[in-house]
Amino acid sequence: MSNAAVIRKLLKYLKGSRRYLFLSLILAGVTTALTLLVPILTGLAVDGMLGENAVNMDSVVKVIVIITVATVVTALVQWIMNIINNRVTYTVVRRVRDEAFNKIQSLPLSYIDTHRTGDIVNRVISDVDQFAEGLLLGLSQSFSSVLTIIGTLAFMLFIDWKIALLVLVVTPLSFVVAAFIAKKTYSMFKLRTETQAEATAYIDEMIAGKNVVAAFGKEDEVAACFDEINTRLNLATLDAVFYSSITNPATRFVNSVVYALVGLAGALSSVAGGITVGALSSFLSYANQYTKPFNEISGVVTELQNAIICAGRVLEVIEAESEKADNENAERVGSERGDVKLCNVSFSYDKAKKLIEELNLDVKKGQRVAIVGPTGCGKTTLINLLMRFYDVDEGEICLENINVEDLTRQNLREGFGMVLQETWLKSGTVKENIAFGKPDATDEEIIEAAKKAHAHGFIKRLPKGYDTVIGDNSGLSQGQKQLLCIARLMLVKPPMLILDEATSSIDTRTEIRIQKAFATLMEGRTSFIVAHRLSTIREADVILVMRDGKIVEQGNHKTLMAKGGFYKELYNAGLNKE
Fold it and tell me: Is this prediction's pTM over 0.85?
């Protein structure tokens, strides 16, 4: 995405702050006008004091009073202008960050699967902060700088147009120097931002997998890898800071040359009687004010470049393709549901590698469907397709004889209750986590669900019981987390169930109890069970045996064993070891 494109897209976020921007522009004009008034007054005072017995104290005191008032008013106006600019900046930042987070909620699962979590977090947090700093600096200095350049140039042309032309001839040197350095710093800041995101993502991964790293004794290797990334980040930062830091000294050098030439030319003109001493002092003040904004603008350009890079990364998230929208005439099915049919379904994550091909399945309401097969055969993928986390490439999935793509996603998903092998708990109390799918549940309902999930016992032992604040990294064991996820399902009681290794982290004794609770819950409900343990699948009405994305066998445990096919091979290879 080009810089111009990023800037155009960012302007839309300023639409709601136009009146504040207009007010800021007016205040910048007031500040500039008062600042430009002081050199004229100073010059008049100097001319009023030249010559023998020519000092008019009343006039000098009057000028001093006016300058003092102008200085105080300028400081007050600048303070108000800074408040307005801060308001505009952080309003825009809030809008950008809200839009980025809301967009993440609507992104397809495929986007999350193909992007590192740390990088996404870095874009929404760090990159937006960097963008805010650049925008604030730009708003604070750009208006005043441009108006100051225009105002001082006008006054210099009025005082002595010949010397003013000399200033104009030398001015482009500042632009040449600033442009050269800016071109260098852009690539440097871009590399720094990308490397910073890489470091954030790596830290996130290693913290999440700390126990695995420790178990394999890879601490030194991980530290060495991070040191390599950190070294690259350090070098990229040093290069970016070095080139950006020489912008100001370089432009100041050029501006000092301009000031010296103005002083020399003005002195010669004053000696020749072409300009008064007071006018020369005013001209020198204006020359100094004229060159100062170039120093500020060069610094602003450097910060804005970094801000544009960061804004571009955030906009990439905001403009990523959202999940396919629901059909305009999307239908809804009621709570009485359970018939599921897959017709010639084909799907693959990587279109170059086939996974599920021409899969057919007909499940009647109330059936318990167990899905077994070797790793990578498509079991979990089938669940993702049922929930429409991914859309099929070919064929169709029907619920109650309605294509799921003709239903709203919310309506489809509220009909399924899921317990996955990978647990997830949000930051909040135990009660809030159990009631995640039913926020209006009573305390009695929550406790009853916890009892059915055999979680009530350990919950009561927590410091504050059901009011104990927990999170995904709460210190609870994996089994306890899974029990809370099961309690969450027991509370909602959806019309259809998906159990993907739902009891993988639970001891055998507790599992037997939960299986009994599941058996009660599954009565009359269509259930899809992904499992490896024989105890989980033995009572299923239908066992689907998957291999290479296809259902190669179908039936109950007894008939499949009698058939002596792939299921029996799996059973003899490991399922019977329980």
Answer: no
